[in-house]
């Protein structure tokens, strides 16, 4: 290890042949002692020594040159940027000023030209010239553009008129055909409505004959069924007559239901309707307006009538000749047929054939009656 000495101090080297005893180990101090002030002699020596080494170091020289160049470049860029920015700002300002000046000049020129043109067109000679040119060019303009357009328009009008005439003719033909079809349809509809109305009227007659026991409705329905044997009206009437027959002939239950007469109101001495006699029941059937009650009275008469009794048959026949209740006809007609021992052959609900036979055979029934009179014959109204 080589020991650094101060300037001017020579190091003593041992001889190559003479052995040198080993030097004691040098213990380095914990921190080198640097000069504390520039007046110190060691300070100058150290500075000179550092300068000498740096001047001989090529790498240091390159670093110094690079730093100097870099500083020059930065200074140049800064100066150039400042100058360039100033120049660019000045140029931009001048250009804006120039553009504004040009716009003002153009606007002034346009306004001046407009006023000049207006002034020129207001002069009499210019107006005369324009009018002359306009009048001469107008006819040419019409001939070049307007006249062909007018001719084309007239041609299209004529074509449209022809097409319209054809459409009107077709429409008229369609209307006439539709009118004929409508007339036919109306006639058919009218006939159909008349048929439906007649059918409804026939149905209404049957409803009234069943619900109200109305003899007049039944007889009108029967008259319709007997005329016009091939008409739809007759077919409808026959169909409704079957419905009426089903309600009166084929129905086994009594139309009077569970109705019971007030015997005490008829005869204070009797409490039950079964205690009433024929001479009390026969006049009663013609005095009440309750149709169900009249049917019940007829049923009681049927239970008390005696076969072969002329007086009872006479009273019942007189009642039936003025009867308006089909329910009463059903009960008393069967009672009269049983008394005189004659069955009605035509099957009419109003017993017309039975009453006709009675008129022809009344005297015979009277002569053959040998039953004792248990009661006097009722007085008919």
Q: What would your notes on this structure say?
A:
- The protein is mostly helical and 381 residues long.
- The protein has a domain of 116 residues.
- It is built from eleven helices and no strands.
- Helix 3 crosses helix 4, helix 3 crosses helix 5 and helix 9 packs antiparallel against helix 10.
- The longest helix has 88 residues.
- The termini are far apart.
- The N terminus and C terminus are likely disordered.
Give the structural class.
mainly alpha
Work out the number of β strands: 0
| Residue share in β-strands | under 5%
Mean pLDDT: 78
Helicity, as a percent range: 55-70%
How many DSSP H or I helices?
11
Please summarize the sheet with the most strands: none
Whole-number radius of gyration? 75 Å
Sketch the topology as an H/E string, one letter per element: HHHHHHHHHHH
How far apart, in Å, are the first and last alpha carbons?
181 Å
Please state the overall shape, judged from the principal axes of the Cα atoms.
elongated
Low-pLDDT segments: 1-32, 374-381
């Amino acid at each position: 290890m080589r020991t650094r000495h101060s300037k001017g101090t020579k190091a003593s080297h041992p001889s190559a042949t003479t052995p040198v005893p080993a030097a004691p180990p040098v213990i380095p101090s914990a921190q080198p002692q640097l000069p504390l002030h520039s007046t110190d002699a060691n300070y100058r020596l150290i500075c000179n020594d550092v300068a000498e080494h740096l001047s001989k170091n090529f790498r240091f020289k390159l670093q110094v040159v690079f730093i100097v160049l870099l500083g020059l470049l930065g200074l140049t860029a800064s100066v150039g940027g400042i100058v360039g920015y100033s120049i660019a700002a000045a140029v931009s300002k001048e250009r804006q000023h120039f553009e504004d000046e040009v716009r003002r000049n153009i606007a002034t020129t346009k306004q001046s030209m407009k006023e000049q043109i207006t002034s020129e067109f207001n002069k009499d000679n210019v107006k005369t010239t324009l009018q002359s040119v306009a009048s001469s060019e107008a006819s040419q303009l019409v001939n070049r553009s307007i006249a062909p357009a007018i001719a084309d328009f007239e041609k299209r009008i004529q074509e449209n008129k022809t097409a319209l005439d054809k459409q009107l003719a077709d429409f008229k033909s369609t209307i006439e055909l539709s009118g004929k079809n409508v007339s036919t349809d109306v006639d058919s509809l009218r006939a159909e409505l008349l048929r439906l109305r007649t059918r409804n009227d026939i149905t209404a007659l049957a409803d009234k004959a069943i619900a109200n026991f109305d003899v007049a409705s039944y007889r009108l329905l029967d008259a319709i069924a007997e005329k016009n044997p091939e008409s739809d009206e007759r077919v409808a009437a026959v169909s409704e007559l079957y419905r009426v027959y089903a309600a009166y002939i084929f129905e086994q239950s009594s139309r009077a239901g569970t109705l019971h007469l007030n015997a005490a109101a008829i005869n204070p001495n009797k409490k039950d309707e079964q205690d009433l006699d024929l001479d009390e029941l026969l006049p009663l059937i013609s005095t009440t307006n309750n149709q169900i009650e009249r049917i019940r009275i007829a049923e009681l008469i049927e239970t008390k009538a005696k076969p072969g009794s002329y007086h009872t048959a006479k009273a019942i026949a007189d009642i039936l000749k003025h009867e308006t209740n089909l329910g009463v006809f059903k009960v008393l007609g069967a009672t009269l047929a049983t008394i005189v021992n004659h069955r009605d052959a035509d099957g009419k609900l109003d017993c017309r054939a039975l009453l006709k036979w009675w008129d022809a055979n009344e005297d015979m029934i009277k002569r053959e009656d040998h039953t004792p009179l248990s009661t006097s014959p009722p007085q008919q109204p």
